[in-house]
Structures are given as C-alpha cells and as structure tokens.
C-alpha cells in the first residue's frame, strides 16, 4: 500500500558502488533518473530485478523457511474481485485481495515486499514500547539487513533514515520504507498481476487457494 531524487541512489552494504557502476556502464536510450513521480524503467528497477533473480536462486538452493499463513478472510465474489482492478489501493485494503496478490508475488519471487508491508502495518498497531522494539528489530533483520535473503529494495536515503531510527525505534520507524515498497508493488507488480492467470481465473468465477492457506 517523498520527493523525487535527482539521481539513482546507491544501496548500502558495499553493493551501492557496484549498482552505480552497472548503471554507468549500461547507458540505454531514453534512460531516466530515479523519481517517485514518474512511471519509467530505470536502474532502480534493474536492481530490483537482479534482487528477484538472486532470491529465486536462494529459494531453490537453500529452501527458505515457510512463510506465515495468509490472512483470514472469506472467499471474494466476482464483483469484489473486479473492484481490485480499479486501483491498487482498493486491492490492498481488502484482505482477500492481499492474499491473492501475495500469491502472485510468490510466483515472481518478490513476496517479501508484501510480507514487509504487512509487518509494518502490524508494528503500527503496537503501543507497548518493549514489543515495538522487539518487532522493529525483527523487521530490520528480516527485511532491511543486507544479509537477509528476504531483503527488500530500498534506496540509500531511506536506509540511512531507518538506521538512525533504530537507535530508538517507534511504531513508525519504517514508514518511509513501507511507502517505497508500496509504490514499488503498485508500479512494478500490480500491472502484471491484473494480466496474470491467477487474477483472470477469479474474474471468471474460478477459485485460487494459496499453497499455505
């Protein structure tokens, strides 16, 4: 479910330089700079595709642990499913919609984007300081750390902000990162989801059952 930057941000953890070098050595026609206000293909999306390929290899080679069960919800009607194509916001506000979209992301080896978004939503509902700190550090280790196989794709500005906030985490410590991942899913994955067999099956009245529901 910020303002634009004037150039493609480097990633932290030593890989930023490699990402920038790749961008400079592979100039393409009509290349564009990274900006949240445009819907174009840029080096940031190239980095996301490389991450997705790496996660695919990891899932095949190391058998990543089973993900948590899907959200509890009722089977959506055809009318309800058709609403999901009207906007990404409507899809993400619906528990059944999130489950189906999450199943689609799993086929693209990018399910961690939804898992991270859901974890951030769960964190924002917490009021206990000790629980907030525990969950925040768990989210960081699972989705922000460059050592995690489920690391999400964030720019350096957001990563630096998270690192500062982790000194004394609050329930909104990952707000900027959550927005960035939401935007990524909206612009990168959502259009393909609407064209997928998973979604088209539901619009025809078929049923899709997640492998873990």
How much of the sequence lies in strands comes to under 5%
Q: What's the number of extended β-strand segments? A: 0
Number of helices: 10
- What fraction, in percent, of the residue positions are helical? 55-70%
Q: What gyration radius follows from the Cα positions, in whole Å?
A: 18 Å
Structural class: mainly alpha
Distance between the termini: 22 Å
SSE ordering = HHHHHHHHHH
Low-pLDDT residue intervals, each spanning 5 or more residues: 2-43, 57-67, 209-213
**Anisotropy-based shape:** globular
How would you state the average pLDDT, rounded? Answer: 77
Biggest sheet record: none
Quick description:
About 55% of the residues lie in helices and about 0% in strands. The chain is mainly alpha-helical and about 210 residues long. Helix 5 runs antiparallel to helix 6, helix 6 (about 110-125) runs antiparallel to helix 7 (about 130-145) and helix 6 packs across helix 9.
How are the secondary structure elements laid out?
Elements: H1 16-25, H2 43-62, H3 78-83, H4 88-92, H5 95-107, H6 112-124, H7 129-144, H8 156-165, H9 175-194, H10 197-203
Helix pairs in contact: 5-6, 6-7, 6-9
């Amino acid at each position: 479910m910020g303002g634009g930057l004037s150039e493609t941000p480097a990633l932290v953890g030593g890989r930023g330089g490699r990402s920038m070098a790749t961008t400079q050595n592979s100039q393409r026609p009509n290349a564009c700079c990274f900006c949240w206000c445009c819907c174009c293909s840029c080096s940031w999306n190239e980095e996301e595709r490389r991450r997705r390929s790496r996660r695919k290899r990891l899932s095949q080679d190391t058998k990543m642990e089973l993900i948590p069960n899907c959200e509890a919800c009722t089977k959506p009607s055809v009318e309800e499913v058709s609403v999901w194509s009207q906007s990404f916001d409507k899809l993400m506000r619906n528990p059944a919609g999130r489950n189906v979209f999450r199943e689609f992301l799993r086929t693209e080896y990018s399910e961690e984007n939804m898992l991270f978004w859901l974890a951030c939503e769960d964190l924002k509902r917490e009021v206990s300081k000790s629980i907030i700190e525990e969950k925040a550090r768990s989210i960081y280790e699972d989705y922000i750390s460059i050592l995690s196989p489920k690391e999400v794709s964030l720019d350096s500005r957001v990563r630096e902000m998270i690192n500062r906030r982790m000194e004394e985490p609050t329930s909104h410590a990952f707000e900027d990162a959550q927005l960035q991942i939401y935007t990524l899913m909206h612009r990168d994955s959502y259009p393909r989801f609407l064209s997928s067999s998973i979604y088209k099956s539901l619009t025809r009245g078929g049923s899709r059952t997640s492998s873990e529901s």
